[in-house]
Amino acid sequence: MINVGILGYGTVGSGVFDILRENGKLIAGRAGEEISVKHVLDLRDFPGDSVESVLTHDFKDIEMDDDVQIVVETMGGLHPAYEFVKACLERGKSVCTSNKALVADFGPELIQLAKDRNASFLFEASVGGGIPIIRPLQSSLSPDEILEISGILNGTTNYILTEMKEKGADFDSVLKDAQALGYAEADPTADVEGHDACRKIAILTSLAYGKNVDFHEIYTEGITKITDRDIIYANRLGAKVKICGSSKKVGDGVCAMVAPVLIYPDNPLYSVDGVFNAILVRGNMVGDVMFYGQGAGKLATASAVVSDVIEAGKNIGTGVPVQWTAEKLSLVSFEESKSRFFVRTAGTKSDSESKVRDAFGDVEEVDAGFSDEYAFVTGEITEAAYEKAAGAVGTVINKIRIS
Amino acid sequence: MINVGILGYGTVGSGVFDILRENGKLIAGRAGEEISVKHVLDLRDFPGDSVESVLTHDFKDIEMDDDVQIVVETMGGLHPAYEFVKACLERGKSVCTSNKALVADFGPELIQLAKDRNASFLFEASVGGGIPIIRPLQSSLSPDEILEISGILNGTTNYILTEMKEKGADFDSVLKDAQALGYAEADPTADVEGHDACRKIAILTSLAYGKNVDFHEIYTEGITKITDRDIIYANRLGAKVKICGSSKKVGDGVCAMVAPVLIYPDNPLYSVDGVFNAILVRGNMVGDVMFYGQGAGKLATASAVVSDVIEAGKNIGTGVPVQWTAEKLSLVSFEESKSRFFVRTAGTKSDSESKVRDAFGDVEEVDAGFSDEYAFVTGEITEAAYEKAAGAVGTVINKIRIS
After folding, report:
1. What is the model's pLDDT at position A402?
2. Do both B235 and B269 map to the same domain?
3. Is the pLDDT of residue A176 over 90?
4. pTM reported for the whole predicted model
5. Residue B182: pLDDT over 90
């Protein structure tokens, strides 16, 4: 029998508890032995809940119990999650976490610590919720050099952008509805400003290249500046606005960013709507593969955590290797990153056209019926070239990169 | 160093050879040691090809070489692939294959044989080409009871149906074009009659439930009866015709079939077009997850084979467990399987309407502008009930199930 301790009985932690109980027999068959929850740590009490018999308020009950081989960390936040996980790994326990902040900040250190103790540090649930992506990236795609990763990594913002398109509504009203429905948090900053997606693309990029990406260095732009007019232009172009986390091999370097992009129907990410997430990976041999599913939600995310628990359980005493070292992965300077840009400028066509062509060269005009604006799509240019030209024009209202 | 023997230097076998050479350094890093091709078996000669130095015409050179720990089987067909694979496993070598016929016919026996010798028998490439599906189904989805699998499992037929829709062309002319382009074989029977997809859904279903599905027992219907009029009706319904392999848990049993179905835009398989494949899996905890990519092609399929080689290489001496026993999985009688049906009948509306309502009860009429037909969608009924009602009407031209 494998004994598990769970740190945090919130949404995901209680989901892990429920799955290990409800699917327990099936899981025992697949894991080769029974997996039982021995302790659940939470500061709160849960009177009448089935967790009561295993609930503790003292972390030491888990840390010091040598019968506990696997610890699930579903507390969220950096502290004390980091200290607790470290203490468990130091005692030779394996840890499975859904905590993307912890993984993005401390991944290489915790992976190394697990390795030193022949234990596992696994985090399938930290990216894409229930979508299998971390393990396929490490195993199924191991023959491939990864050329590009591009993902809709945040369900809240994908829901907001989908609703803006379908209802023709503006950002603020859709955000309020999303908050009322529980799809967006009271403080939506981490989602709408792209910080959540940034940590996730940092994790995926680190795994793809085996070296550490400092997520602070990734250019991150949220969706708060996207307006209903942008959506109308996107419709006119036959495209959708999505916020993507992406990283791309450029020469010997990697270029990573999080930003709203225009996606066309020939891209499989185009049809990923609502709260769903998807990650497109391009390998130099396998071509494009995409992984799609629920990027959040109690049981979906908990299922990913439990898949890690089963894998850690099968590898007690040896540990599951994860290729992600502390060596820094150098990112290509953002200024050198290239895209085509959709750009809206204030003023009529006759005001703007020659100014725009002087600055951007040949552009494709986009007419969505607004006579007070002049909008266009540029050729492929660097961020630096875009900034210079936009500065010269002086009347840019908004820009969106084209995927 | 791990030594590999490759049986068959055709499309996939030469792809495996190329990947192990071109991505060799990266693969060595991830596998933990160098993986080198020591022998390639083929009856043909390849003068001037880099395979020449390792080419053999004698299987014994691989079978009897104790330095060869992993054998790649990419010959296709059942014989002598089966005899060769069995001989290799009996000598304790691991085998990685792309041969779906071999896996569908002899899966449990070869898995057991590998297990008895602490070796691996792996077959990621046998379903979905380069798409990671076998390994995720076995590991990432291990916490879940699988409720349903539904897949676009054959690129040739998906290409044909996509072209029929996009060009408004009929089956025969699109098939001829596909043959000219190399997307369909000279004898397209296995693809267009659904036999290929049938073996693939049998493999996936066997893995999902750990018991053996006899693919002969799966109801299989191809796309040869789909006409341009069916596509026009599908357009009218806002749906697409796709040929899907599916299996679904119904009570304690599993219902499996391969057939053309109408798929609506809310299904993520709707946007899988052309030669791409995708597999949608519904777990009782994780919900819907989908895996998408190139279902065929030299390097994509070979990449899946090499991912197995790397995994087998990491598990020399222990073997990678695969949960698929010889115990028979009992399929629900096809007659009891339930669907909604789109049905076309010959004759005008006034000829047919009352006859149809007498036989099928309340139906939704579908008007695509053909006055010589009466078409409709039924409620959810069993196959047996459909057959009885269709017999009573007596004028059915075609029917397509609704996904």
Report:
1. 98
2. yes
3. yes
4. 0.97
5. no
**How far away is chain B from the Cα of A218, in angstroms, using its nearest Cα?**
25
**Of B69, B65, B66, B70, residue with least CA distance to B122:** B70
* Mean local confidence (pLDDT), B115-135: 98
Structure ipTM: 0.96
Show which of residues 63-122 on chain B sit within 8 Å of chain A, judged by CB atoms.
Answer: none
Could you tell me the CATH number of the domain that includes residue A368? 3.30.70.1150
Read off the tokens for B367: 């008007």
Is B30 an 8 Å CB contact of chain A?
yes
Band of pLDDT at residue B197, cut at 50, 70 and 90: very high
Q: How many CB atoms lie within 10 A of CB A364?
A: 12
Tokens 């550490």 sit at which residue? A212
The answer to whether A142 contacts chain B (CB < 8 Å) is yes
Residue B4 near residue B20 (C-beta atoms within 8 A): yes
User: Which residues does B364 contact at the CB level (< 8 Å), separation at least 6?
Assistant: B376, B377
B25 annotated active-site: no
Q: Are residues B147 and B78 located together in one domain of the fold?
A: no
Q: Which residues on chain A are in Cβ contact (under 8 Å) with B294?
A: 286-289
Q: What is the pLDDT of residues A22-66, one digit of tens each?
A: 999 999 999 999 999 999 999 999 999 999 999 999 999 999 999
Residues of A serving a catalytic function are 200
Please report whether residue B322 resides in a domain: no
Q: Token pair of A140, please?
A: 């199924």
A368: domain range?
Answer: 334-402
CA pair distance A316, A31, nearest whole angstrom: 11
Rg for chain B, CA atoms, rounded:
23
